[in-house]
Amino acid sequence: MPSSIVCPSRSRFRRAGLLALALALAQALPPVGATVAVAQNASTGAIQGQVRDKASRAPLAGVTVVITGTGHSETTITEEDGSYRVTGLPPGTYLVTFFFGDVTLERRGVVVSVGKTTPLFQAIDTAQAVAETIVISDKPPTIDPTSTTQGITITQDYTKNIPVPGRTLGATLGTAAGTQGTSGVSFSGSTSPNPPDVVMDAEAYARLADNPFQAVATAPRSTFSIDVDTASYANLRRFVRDGQAPPPDAIRTEELINYFTYADAAPRGDAPFAVTTELGESPWHPGYQVLRVALRSRSIAQADVPARNLVFLLDVSGSMDDPHKLPLLQQAMGLLVDQLRPQDQVAIVVYAGAEGVALPTTSGDHKPDIRAALAALAAGGSTNGAAGITRAYQLARASFLPGGINRVILCTDGDWNVGVTSEGGLTRLIEDQRKHGVYLSVLGFGMGNLKDQTMEALADKGNGNYAYIDSLAEARKVLVEQAGATLVTVADDVKLQVEFNPAQIAGYRLIGYEDRLLADRDFTDDQKDAGELGAGHSVTALYELVPAGVAVPGPAADPLIYQAPAAATGAADLLTVKIRYKAPGQATSTPRSYRVRGAARPLARTSDDFRWSLAMAGLGALLRGNPERGAVSWADVSALAQGAVGPDREGYRKDALAVIAGAQALAARAPAMP
Hints:
Layout: E1 4-6, E2 20-21, E3 36-37, E4 45-53, E5 64-69, E6 72-77, E7 83-89, E8 92-100, E9 103-112, E10 116-119, E11 122-124, E12 129-130, E13 134-136, E14 142-143, E15 154-157, E16 162-165, E17 176-179, E18 186-189, E19 214-215, E20 221-225, H1 231-241, H2 253-258, E21 273-281, E22 289-297, E23 308-315, H3 326-338, E24 345-351, E25 355-363, H4 367-375, H5 385-398, E26 405-412, H6 423-434, E27 439-445, H7 452-461, E28 466-469, H8 472-481, H9 483-487, E29 489-500, E30 505-511, E31 531-534, E32 538-547, E33 575-582, E34 590-596, H10 608-624, H11 634-642, H12 652-669
Helix pairs in contact: 1-12, 3-4, 3-8, 5-6, 6-7, 10-11, 11-12
């Protein structure tokens, strides 16, 4: 029967400007339909084969093979020798689809018999390129009359000297021009009169319950995983600048605090980080205290960054058809490309209804090729995120750099609606892949249907960090200014546990970190995953403390019957901070501990960093409507922040003053919080 090889049409991989690869039938390969005996389940059969390059006969790894039919569907990826094998197939006739780059090959009528293996070999001709959708079969090639050649417009923003890809969407090309006000970047190009529908007001955030006060008598320890994500603050800034009040669950207070840099002491010797503590009066509850615990890792010079093996996993589905999404994504990745060195390497995987390799692994000294691949992207189709992640990890592992940085960088709005859509399925896939030493960072884009909950979970399980890119300036912060913290991991599975002395402290509450809490026994369990610390990272945690002899807010627990009250040891100690971490790639954690003593300073005598972190904590409490927020007010938050800007070399704190003012104005128009 004839076999057709179909290059992508508008229904698949609508990628403007990419030169599509042509696929041709293999020559001198075993025919489809011949079966051989094999040990099989009594009621199923199998398909196996090999994919090779037609000209060189070299095996092709990373080709996605999808087998569908008889109500059954299986997906696999070819191994390094180009081989694949799918077993457990019920007898019947199947469609086998090969995805390679931006094209598909369909082999129809593949018969599977009980107890047999059907050999299915394929060769791919990567030499021929076409610019339009064509069909190659036993008949002469023809042009699809319904297709329209799609192009890409490149403009230049001379204020930033950054190539800016124009937007080209749809089958019938019209013209449109517009501007996007972030960082002076303008977008122009062609757009479809019927762009893909974007579901507004469909953003998804995890439900968070604010940490209550705990009594030391019944809960003497507090344990959590560190968090170095910053997405929540950048997302808040986007809401404020768009004149919208953020939903409370979009606010993760620890990310508001940790968005900013702090002047904490750098580590000495071989330690991967230093620990700083500061104790001051609480601005929220008279007589209470606040403890700031800060970890700071050593910064790394660009010249000392290990060789990087990066796979950009880019969402080009229809939901990314927005100036704040795909065009901004292309610019953001361009900033990272500018930092590449000859020893670095990059690949680009794109995904929509299916996935493909837009750029094979390429050396960092071939920047024009990398930029061209980025510039050629356009949005369209549904979202098969799981298929893209699978392909990206396959490429990262195939080009793994021992001793280097091996990381997948996922850029998306988080809208997963095809393939493995559940958060659990995606996180299990990523947890399995991180065992091979490839970490995952997630960059969120856009608004309207941002799936914040999914992206945060993926980054956590992938031993990476999650940032939200609301502007080119934020992209520069994350990918250039803080590239060490974003890409270079210095400590894995960092856990923090604070043990309180009941002779000094009656109660406490951890501010933020609600979705990072751990059981006390998890602290010494090296199998329990926790957060990663990057080079140059600064991590702050705040505890509000109730002094001994003062009633702890909230209902009191019944007194214990069988345990005597714990005896206070080291009566001068307020508490002990304990930390566990692993060196990257190691399975055993290293413990460290620090005793905290002394009296709380008056708020006016605390450091700028202490008061700034309190201002951000107060901002989070107001935006979330935290029931434990005490006497915090907008005026207090604003005054604390204005008095704690400090040197602010990057300008992030001055920018935050405008965010606070904007959030206050929005809150004044909103109904009063309970």
